[in-house]
Amino acid sequence: MRFWKREELTEEERRYRRRQFRTRVIYAMTFLSFTGLLVRAAYVQISNGKAFRQAELSIPKARIPVLPQRGWIYDANGQVLAWDKPSLSIVMNRYSTMSDATYQRLAAKLAPVLHQTPQALYSLMKSNQGAIQVTLANNVALAQVAYVVEHQSDLPGVEVIQDYVREYPYGDLAGQVLGYVGAITAENVKRYKGYLYSQKVGETGVEEQYEPLLQGKPGYELVAINSAGNAIAQAGEIAPQNGKNLQLTLDGHEQACAQMIVQSMIQKTSDKNTVENAAAVMLDVKTGGVIAMVSYPYLDPNWFTLGTLSQHAHYASTSGAQVNSAIAMVNYPGSTVKPANLITAMKAGLVSPQTTVQDDGYIYIGKSRKNEDEGFAFGPVDPIKALTVSSDVFFYEVGLWFGKWFGSSATQGGSWPAGDGSYQHYLNTDLARGLNALFQGEADFGLGFKTGIDLPYEEDGRFYILDSEQGNQQVPYDLKASERALARAGEYENHGSPASLADAAIGQSQMFTPLQLAEYALTLANRGVRLTPHVLQAVYEPNGTPTNGARPESTVRPKVAGRVTAAPWQWDLVQRGMVGVTSSSDGTAYGAFAGAPYQVAGKTGTAQIVLGGKPTDNSVFICYAPADHPQVAVAVMAPGGGYGAQFSAVIARQMLDAYFNEHHAPFMPKSGWTDTSIPANWKSSPAYQIPEQSP
């Protein structure tokens, strides 16, 4: 017999052998388990497969919608301007007609659960008749959810949904730009194929413009239901796809400052009710991005998403706050058009640096007399001085020269060329060509037509002509139709007057939006390069934001919308005149910019208008700064605000100061430097408080 000596193992070797043993045991158990599964599978598939498949298919499943989170909206500095707050909501679906008695019964049953009176709940159920679904309560408690679920059979059309409440944390900050969301209605349901009735959709502003990006796609939770109709198990899930996040070009700090500045200026006016609406726009001259867009009166989008609109119904329906005045308000620009008209005149060879006009305070056109504003008489005026002091007489002459009406002065009314024959033939030919040259020159700068900004409900501008058959009242002038007729037949029939040429030259025969004026100022700053304004800066995937280091999915690049070609000396001359407006002691906006540590190229405008049956002035101002190396362009318009120099120019100066202080411009005193955060006093300012306290 052979004896084996016991093998002495080290501790490491013993651990290794134990691991080998456990591994072999696991392999054996796995093999046996799989063998058992194969046998069982054969039994199920071969022996009872048909019965089991039938049983599985016979278990009903409910598909419960899971709404996506709408994309968030950020400002240029990464501050949240709009977000989605998760909540549970109780809603009523109105897919089919229900009797009034049913509404009354449901209201009585749910009122104590939702802590409302039956009458209030009944009114809510019957409200907004166009909506297919109406929200009865947001942010409901679990006890309220349980009641609806337990009494579902007694509550037709009532259900609980996981929802998101859209919130705008800074209230009326850029309210008309951001817009708001609302329910899908019977009127717009066809626009939203594939949407759930419970989804909220953008109704105005960025929310509407970028609805496809912000919305996302719903998901579903599959729940197995037993024969009693009770959920017994979760059977699967299709996760929702959240909406994409957007970063705007809007600078929240500058936007807040601008709204506070405009509100403060209106509060300081002698008659606060005179200025019913106003707008201010600041653009980045290198990109066309909108840095600030103010539309007064202000609007808080939360009223529409948090159910508080009824508390501000009068204000919202009568103030005009639901209109974005920056893109939809059209009014006379006054003398702000003079730089564009001067460029056009110099290009046409009608004006040179040596051109001089004697401004005696008035001029005759035919038998009618047109006066200088406020009775001023500037004496001999060259092009630079004409811009600096805003000589109307100089530009009356320029307008008449475009239409070949020569000889007007303080002593005689001038006449049309003898070669034109009849006066009517003159109107149909040379006068029409002159008006077209002026208006088209302005259009080349972005005036009179939509800018193409990425916001809904932008308005075109308008052009006018005096019509002798309408009592010399202004009537719409179709620039494109006139150009086509002249190109085709050499004539465009009209019943105008040479006075229309003079009015057009000083901004009293056309209406533009504040945004068009801002784009025009940008084009002047860029010496003829016109960029399309835009509010979108970047798009991020649902998990990406401007603040978490994610790279944007896409960004918006500057888009050249057109070019105005002029000689360098012509741009230099216009800029000298515009700098004189703000820096020369006889400049019309000298008082507003006195002491500014930077140069501004600007132009005031004061157009005569009628508000509420009373004559008043449209206060307008455009500018770009710094004049030597432009960064931003600004336009301000306030119908009823008085002189452009005393109202709109003051607003523009303060907006520029706020911007340069925020960006720590080296020419600004360090003591005034700020940061990019939205000012801490925003919610205590009148710009925020006045709308919130309005009935």
From TrEMBL:
<keyword id="KW-0812">Transmembrane</keyword>
<feature type="domain" description="Penicillin-binding protein dimerisation">
    <location>
        <begin position="68"/>
        <end position="234"/>
    </location>
</feature>
<keyword id="KW-0472">Membrane</keyword>
<dbReference type="InterPro" id="IPR050515">
    <property type="entry name" value="Beta-lactam/transpept"/>
</dbReference>
<feature type="transmembrane region" description="Helical">
    <location>
        <begin position="21"/>
        <end position="43"/>
    </location>
</feature>
<keyword id="KW-1003">Cell membrane</keyword>
<dbReference type="Pfam" id="PF00905">
    <property type="entry name" value="Transpeptidase"/>
</dbReference>
<keyword id="KW-0573">Peptidoglycan synthesis</keyword>
<feature type="domain" description="Penicillin-binding protein transpeptidase">
    <location>
        <begin position="279"/>
        <end position="656"/>
    </location>
</feature>
<dbReference type="GO" id="GO:0071555">
    <property type="term" value="P:cell wall organization"/>
</dbReference>
<comment type="similarity">
    <text>Belongs to the transpeptidase family.</text>
</comment>
<keyword id="KW-0961">Cell wall biogenesis/degradation</keyword>
<dbReference type="GO" id="GO:0071972">
    <property type="term" value="F:peptidoglycan L,D-transpeptidase activity"/>
</dbReference>
<keyword id="KW-0133">Cell shape</keyword>
<dbReference type="GO" id="GO:0008360">
    <property type="term" value="P:regulation of cell shape"/>
</dbReference>
<protein>
    <submittedName>
        <fullName>Penicillin-binding protein 2</fullName>
    </submittedName>
</protein>
<dbReference type="GO" id="GO:0008658">
    <property type="term" value="F:penicillin binding"/>
</dbReference>
<dbReference type="GO" id="GO:0009252">
    <property type="term" value="P:peptidoglycan biosynthetic process"/>
</dbReference>
<keyword id="KW-1133">Transmembrane helix</keyword>
<dbReference type="GO" id="GO:0005886">
    <property type="term" value="C:plasma membrane"/>
</dbReference>
<dbReference type="InterPro" id="IPR012338">
    <property type="entry name" value="Beta-lactam/transpept-like"/>
</dbReference>
<dbReference type="InterPro" id="IPR036138">
    <property type="entry name" value="PBP_dimer_sf"/>
</dbReference>
<dbReference type="Pfam" id="PF03717">
    <property type="entry name" value="PBP_dimer"/>
</dbReference>
<dbReference type="InterPro" id="IPR001460">
    <property type="entry name" value="PCN-bd_Tpept"/>
</dbReference>
<dbReference type="InterPro" id="IPR005311">
    <property type="entry name" value="PBP_dimer"/>
</dbReference>
